[in-house]
């Protein structure tokens, strides 16, 4: 079943999308809406169904149930007309190590029947430039760092102008510098008007680069929307820095603060404010009146991680 008409301003839209493998419901009734122009983070712990979803969106596997539209067209039926407008980087780039970065891109470009061979060199040159690999263009790909390989993969997706980029875990395995480079590139592409859909199991990454996000857990969509709104729905945590944690916990608990955690390393006591929070100035005064030496007092903004934990009751497997 395909939705009657595509929703305007939406580049990826799924309805009840599901994929059942023998014994595993990898994706379970997914209703996803990715707005045009967004940097959309598809977030979830390992095994939550992200790659399976992306493979269905790209027409690589058939859904068991439900439907998907990409750029307004039903998939996988319209793969032929849709995929040329989509740059995809799924499960790491397929590169020839014995070829230079430049020659890898020439091969990619030559495999595209719509690409004019006369302008190939210029296309490859500008894609290399785009990802900052001009200086390393002649080096064999096997000598590239992981980050450079990833950027070369991105360059291959950028040989043609794209309306949509789909990146599966683009920073997986990269060091912090490599991650920063990819994030900067994603921002630049988005500034140019390309919609970027990227999956990640890293909350931080999504918060830093994405305008919108969808959160998956065990094949199901937990929530989706603008990143700022997702975390705004979750209350922040109160943080008190003090050498007197025992008395602090007592006073905070008496004021309705729950889930109190003492961290001896940071000398911080943190806790969840009640639905109707007490006046923070009064709470601070109550601590001082009880003899607590308050060295720091504040409300930490709720993160996407807090939202995830609040929504699923589970911790987020960031190590995975
Ligand atoms: N080809 C397959 N055959 C059987 N089960 C599969 C297959 N592909 C994925 N699965 C299962 O489906 C579930 C979702 O996997 P999927 O790879 O989509 O998750 P993911 O969120 O992308 O995680 P990761 O980041 O580890 O790839 C997992 O339980 C996985 O074991």
Written description of the protein model:
With 320 residues, the protein is an alpha/beta fold. The chain folds into two domains: 10-224, Rossmann fold (3-Layer(aba) Sandwich), CATH 3.40.50; 237-301, Alpha-Beta Plaits, CATH 3.30.70.100. 32% of the residues lie in helices and 27% in strands. It has helices at 50-57, 79-82, 101-110, 120-130, 146-157, 176-191, 203-209, 227-232, 245-254, 280-289, 304-312, and strands spanning 10-21, 24-30, 33-35, 39-43, 65-70, 73-75, 86-89, 164-168, 195-200, 212-217, 220-226, 237-241, 258-263, 268-272, 296-300. The strands form three sheets. It has a six-stranded mixed sheet, with helices on both faces. Strands 1, 2, 3, 5 and 6 form a five-stranded antiparallel sheet that branches. A hairpin with a 4-residue loop joins strand 13 (258-263) and strand 14 (268-272). It is elongated, with a radius of gyration of 24 Å. The model has no long low-confidence stretch (mean pLDDT 88). InterPro entries: AAA+_ATPase, ABC_transporter-like_ATP-bd, ABC_transporter-like_CS, P-loop_NTPase. Residues 12-243 form the ABC transporter domain. One of its GO terms (molecular function) is ATP binding. Keywords: ATP-binding, Nucleotide-binding, Transport.
């Amino acid at each position: 079943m395909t939705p009657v008409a595509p929703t305007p301003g939406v580049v990826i839209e799924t309805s009840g999308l599901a994929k059942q493998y023998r014994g595993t419901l990898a994706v379970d009734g997914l209703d996803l809406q990715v707005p045009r122009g967004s940097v959309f983070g598809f977030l979830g712990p390992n095994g939550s169904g992200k790659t399976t979803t992306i493979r269905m969106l790209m027409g690589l596997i058939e859904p068991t149930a439900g439907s998907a539209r990409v750029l307004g067209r039903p998939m996988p039926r319209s793969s032929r007309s849709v995929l040329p407008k989509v740059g995809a980087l799924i499960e790491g780039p397929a590169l020839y190590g014995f070829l230079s970065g430049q020659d890898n891109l020439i091969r990619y470009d030559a495999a595209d029947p719509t690409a004019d061979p006369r302008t190939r060199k210029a296309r490859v040159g500008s894609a290399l430039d785009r990802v900052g690999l001009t200086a390393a263009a002649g080096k064999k790909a096997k000598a590239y760092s992981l980050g450079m390989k990833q950027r070369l993969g991105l360059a291959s997706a950028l040989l043609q102008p794209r309306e949509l980029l789909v990146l599966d875990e683009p920073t997986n395995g990269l060091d912090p510098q490599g991650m920063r480079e990819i994030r900067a590139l994603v921002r630049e592409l988005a500034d140019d008007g390309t919609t970027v859909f990227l999956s990640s199991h890293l909350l931080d990454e999504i918060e830093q680069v994405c305008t919108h996000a969808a959160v998956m857990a065990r094949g199901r969509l937990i929530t989706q929307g603008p990143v700022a709104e997702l975390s705004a729905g979750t209350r922040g945590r109160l943080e008190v820095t003090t050498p007197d944690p025992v008395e602090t916990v007592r006073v905070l608990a008496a004021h309705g603060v729950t889930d109190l955690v003492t961290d001896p390393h940071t000398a911080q006591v943190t806790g969840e404010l009640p639905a109707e929070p007490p006046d923070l100035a009064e709470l601070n005064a109550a601590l001082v009146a009880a003899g607590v030496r308050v060295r720091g007092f504040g409300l930490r903004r709720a993160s996407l991680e807090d939202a995830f934990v609040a929504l699923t009751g589970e911790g987020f497997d960031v190590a995975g």
